TrEMBL record:
Originating organism: Candidatus Promineifilum breve
Solute-binding protein family domain segment(s): 123-598
One Gene Ontology cellular component annotation held by this UniProt entry: ATP-binding cassette (ABC) transporter complex
Keyword Heme tagged: no
UniProt keyword annotation of Signal present: yes
Full protein name: Peptide/nickel transport system substrate-binding protein
Length: 685
């Protein structure tokens, strides 16, 4: 088995071999290579990918050199070709809460306001005529009322005309749908004063109805109608006046930021109802409560006002967008000052699902893709081929002095507002196929295995943060000591954190489960989404470290397709999930809420007593108006986090992106995910 201090090298070594053989004249030498073998096996009736670590002797190329540059420009300047892993979970804007689906939604649909190009704080109007302020009368003095004048003459792709009632319906439908795996908690707090994340809170103080459609449908119809009427009172449309008014429950500073994202993208009410979505009747809304992506009428279809239409989506293969030639923007209404207008320059956008890095890399080298998803550990293969280095926020580019004729552009100055972490499930769902025998017998784990703090502390102290940083993040990561990212209000740079300490890890495992683990052992699976080699390597680091302590400590790494992974994590079936978070709005609340009481806390089945301790501080932090008070609350919360350790927090890192040099118009804004295809064009230098 590979020495644990070098375990993070295993994927990079094999990838460099592939690069060298493909792009260089060989200078052969015999070396010992450790690599990961991925096998598809059938377990509990479904195929899964399981990895093994093997060491073998291979002939490799000793010193790779950059490939000769591809000459000329794009194959077709109107076609964007992108290769990545993962695909949308849903195209329903009220449900979508992951980046791949969000990338489609944000290019096909539009919200009332959008960020002003690269600014993380300023907004410009989109489907609203102007951004409301207190000065223009759009925001009341007490900060509780926001009124938007809705733009006229805008048509949806399917032919409907945008009207204020479409806007009100969009938000009302989302709030009432209130799916626990979606983004509606972001709107329930400011609009309804609900902190539990469920629309039924007013009639369900104990949370017994949350996420249970059958239970909600069986509730008192009068009470259910009252919930709906309260939602309709919070968002009021006036078609005659051309306005929509939001009546907030509490002042909410980041309200414009919240509604500018994909869950604020506007639906055509009449079209949605024709597809089988909620009909707008307060007597029936419960029939559409918490549908999940698999039951939403809008999961596989989309109709917006944006610059692109969905041409088709072939699950497992690709999605394709086509420019909407009737797009409403003109020279008088550019996306931002000096920004694009009229129909999109890129007429076709092709997003191909390519899990294997070597294939994505080869396509970039051959000029067969404008953009490829590059995991941090693969940057060492891209960097020697970079010809220009560009600032992602200013667009300014400079030749790479080491290789000015290189193939690619590298965009830097993309501050990391996302992070990959380790999420153990406290109480795994009964019937999970990922727990082996389901018993503490050496061939599985009991469902409450990670409810033991010592087991969670073993995960934290057995993880080799240095290897992960050096070999995956290329030494550019910054450790975080809790959910809040470094540099943000509420992050305590002096806060305690767990360090890599195999002796401490062994001691925690000896103390766990009444001392039974060293003699009995265990076996469980750590899951990641197929193609995400960063997350795969995280699992392999833990796999190797635990095995080095005791061969009876068996961890298997498990690759699952993205939709399967999401479904299993949402169902609390995964013993340990390696997943990530990208902030929705740049505020500490958007980190502590999903980690501790919302998205991930729910998926991990964090016990109610512990979640209540978190919730008290989470709610206090978001409601406090004084920054110093907020900071101390978050300091206290992160101290509680360290004491109870619900997750293993890893490292934050800036995330450079790579494109072909014929790509123009790419930009980045803090918190942005995906790509703004409307702003881009292709042209040879």
């Amino acid at each position: 088995m590979l020495n644990r201090k070098k375990l993070g090298l295993m994927m990079g070594l094999l990838a460099v071999v592939i690069l060298a053989l493909a792009a260089c004249q060989p200078q052969s030498q015999v070396v010992e290579v450790t690599r990961v073998v991925t096998e598809t096996v059938v377990g509990e009736g479904q195929p899964v990918e399981v990895t093994r670590i093997v060491t073998e002797v291979q002939e490799v190329v000793a010193t790779p050199t950059a490939a000769a540059p591809v000459t000329g420009g794009p194959e077709d300047p109107t076609v964007w070709r992108e290769v990545s892993f993962g695909e949308p979970d849903t195209l329903d804007p009220a449900l979508g809460y992951e980046t791949t689906g969000g990338n489609v939604i944000q290019n096909v649909m539009e919200p009332l306001v959008i960020y002003d190009h690269v600014s993380p704080t300023d907004f410009v109007p989109a489907l609203a005529l102007e951004v409301p302020t207190q000065d223009n009368g759009g925001i009341s003095e007490d900060g509780l009322t926001y009124t938007f004048q809705i733009r006229e003459g805008v048509t949806f792709h399917a032919g409907g005309t945008l009207e204020p009632h479409d806007v009100a319906y969009t938000f009302q439908r989302g709030l009432l749908q209130s799916d626990p795996n979606g983004p509606q908690w972001l709107l329930l707090e400011p609009l309804m004063g609900i902190t539990s994340g469920d629309i039924n809170e007013s009639i369900d103080a104990e949370g017994l109805l949350a996420g249970d459609p059958a239970a909600v449908q069986a509730a008192d119809p009068t009470q259910l109608a009252g919930i709906c009427e309260a939602v309709k009172a919070a968002i009021v449309a006036d078609d005659a006046a051309g306005t929509v008014t939001f009546n907030l429950a509490v002042p909410w500073g980041p309200f414009l930021a919240t509604i500018s994202q994909t869950w604020g993208m506007i639906l055509d009410q009449e079209w949605a109802v024709e597809q089988g979505a909620w009909d707008g009747d307060c007597a029936t809304w419960q029939n559409w409560y918490a549908p999940g992506a698999e039951n939403s009428e809008l999961t596989n279809i989309i109709n917006g006002t944006g610059p692109y239409k969905l041409d088709h989506w072939t699950p497992g293969e690709e999605f394709v967008l086509a420019a909407y030639e009737g797009y409403w923007r003109t020279e008088e209404t550019p996306k931002w000052e000096g920004g694009p207008f009229g129909p999109a320059a890129l007429k076709t956008v092709i997003y191909s699902i390519v899990d294997e890095w070597g294939t994505r890399f080869s396509m970039m080298q051959a000029g067969d893709a404008e953009f490829a998803q590059v995991n941090p550990e693969h940057e060492i293969q891209m960097d020697p081929m970079v010809g220009e280095i560009c600032d992602a926020q200013t667009g300014a580019c400079e030749p790479n002095p080491e290789n000015p004729e290189g193939l690619f552009r590298k965009y830097v100055n993309r501050p990391g507002v996302n992070r990959t972490d380790i999420f153990p499930t406290f109480i795994i769902a009964d019937g999970s196929p990922y727990v082996g025998s389901g018993q503490l017998d050496g061939n599985g784990i009991p469902l409450d295995f990670f409810n033991d703090l010592n087991v969670r502390q073993a995960l934290a102290t057995c993880f080799n943060y240095g290897v992960y940083n050096d070999e995956v993040l290329l030494g550019q990561g910054v450790r975080n000591n809790g959910p809040i990212i470094s540099g943000m209000l509420g992050y305590n740079p002096d806060g305690a954190m767990y360090d890599y300490d195999p002796a401490a890890c062994a001691a925690h495992l000896e103390a766990a489960w009444d001392g039974a683990l060293p003699e009995t052992g265990f076996r469980f699976q750590i899951a990641f989404n197929t193609g995400n080699t960063t997350r795969q390597t995280i699992g392999e680091i833990l796999q190797g470290e635990f095995a080095a302590l005791n061969p009876l400590y068996q961890i298997e790494t498990l690759g699952l397709p993205w939709p399967t992974f999401l479904a299993a994590q949402r169902a609390s079936q995964l013993p340990v999930a390696v997943n990530g978070w990208q902030e929705d709005i740049h505020d500490p609340h958007n980190w502590v809420q999903p980690y501790l009481v919302g998205t991930y806390g729910a998926r991990q089945n964090i016990p109610a007593e512990l979640m209540d301790q978190y919730r008290e501080l989470v709610n206090a932090g978001v409601l406090a108006s004084d920054p110093a008070e907020r900071e101390q609350i978050y300091f206290d919360l992160q101290a509680l986090f360290h004491e109870t350790l619900p997750q293993v927090i890893l490292l934050q890192r800036d995330a450079p992106w790579y494109t072909q040099r014929w790509v123009n118009g790419y930009y980045y804004r803090v918190g942005m995910f995906g790509r703004d295809y409307y702003a881009m064009s292709l042209a040879a230098e």
